[in-house]
Amino acid sequence: xxxxxxxxxxxxxxxxxxxxxxxxxxxxxxxxxxxxxxxxxxxxxxxxxxxxxxxxxxxxxxxxxxxxxxxxxxxxxxxxxxxxxxxxxxxxxxxxxxxxxxxxxxxxxxxxxxxxxxxxxxxxxxxxxxxxxxxxxxxxxxxxxxxxxxxxxxxxxxxxxxxxxxxxxxxxxxxxxxxxxxxxxxxxxxxxxxxxxxxxxxxxxxxxxxxxxxxxxxxxxxxxxxxxxxxxxxxxxxxxxxxxxxxxxxxxxxxxxxxxxxxxxxxxxxxxxxxxxxxxxxxxxxxxxxxxxxxxxxxxxxxxxxxxxxxxxxxxxxxxxxxxxxxxxxxxxxxxxxxxxxxxxxxxxxxxxxxxxxxxxxxxxxxxxxxxxxxxxxxxxxxxxxxxxxxxxxxxxxxxxxxxxxxxxxxxxxx
Length: 415
Prior knowledge:
By secondary structure, this protein is an alpha+beta fold. Helices cover 40% and strands 14% of the residues. The chain contains twelve helices and nine strands. It has helices at 23-44, 51-66, 71-77, 79-87, 95-112, 140-149, 178-184, 232-236, 305-308, 314-345, 364-384, 400-414; strands spanning 174-175, 195-198, 203-208, 221-226, 247-252, 265-280, 290-298, 347-351, 357-361. Strands 1, 2, 3, 4, 5, 6 and 7 form a seven-stranded mixed β-sheet that branches.
């Protein structure tokens, strides 16, 4: 099965693959603007844009102005964020493109309301996590249990990842965290610390996190620092034919490496072991543990490593940051509710300053502190939405889930 990716409805497709009413085409164009053209303009100025690209983008914006695209397709494709990127940076883009974007922004806002408040789907239909999880799914064990009870649960078997080869995945495939990569079967566990996917016969994949990659000049030739507790290192360094099979390499954003993704977990392709060194760990001589440094080289005839390193796209970074934000809010809510329950269950008696006796709830001060933290968190998120996830100064709102629930959450905190 393919890695988790945004699911776009075909119901509004009108005609061929490059129709302006095809949400897949709209999404590709939005990515082209945000991940190709905008970085080029930011780095070199709009004079560096190729004339053909300027004409193509101008024609695309003109078609958008002349069309009647549904709100659903706009949000699914995130083309409104691309339009705001051009409109909100008046000195960066050619004047003609800015004028087209301003006109399009005015036309869409006249029908659908503010583009900044339009957001994008994450947990809703069409979103990356639709019918996969919810913001309040805080327990990994409970979430995996839900997946096991769902139709097609056989794909969750850890045995699926205990096979050699790419398993149908392509370099650049990306997930919000290792748990979702596990769900798709490329690794056999969702542990954030990563490690080697192996059994008694062979090693099949490596998830690199933290300090597990030695400093290197090239992403296709790496030295992996195996953890002393990871028995999979014996499979990577064994002298058997099975140990010479190519290994799937994944990099996490927690990896201390120039080649790590900006967010989430990325599959970088098949690599083979070319050698290893075993030595005493000089950084922790007291434990007297042996350090395994295993060298890999990337196999040819795959999607290029440069193409893989382009991921995550800006829309994927948005999904990651919104997932983390809503997860954090749900966790605060859970702690607050637990504090309220503790307060009602465990009152205590304390002498007041006037010599009387007061009854307090042991969780009252804690809950008040948490309420302040929630308000502070909401303010930080409001500010960060303007300059994170590639949203730019336009400050596009996040998901519809956020728009529907943040107001109610703020009112409950304030009162």
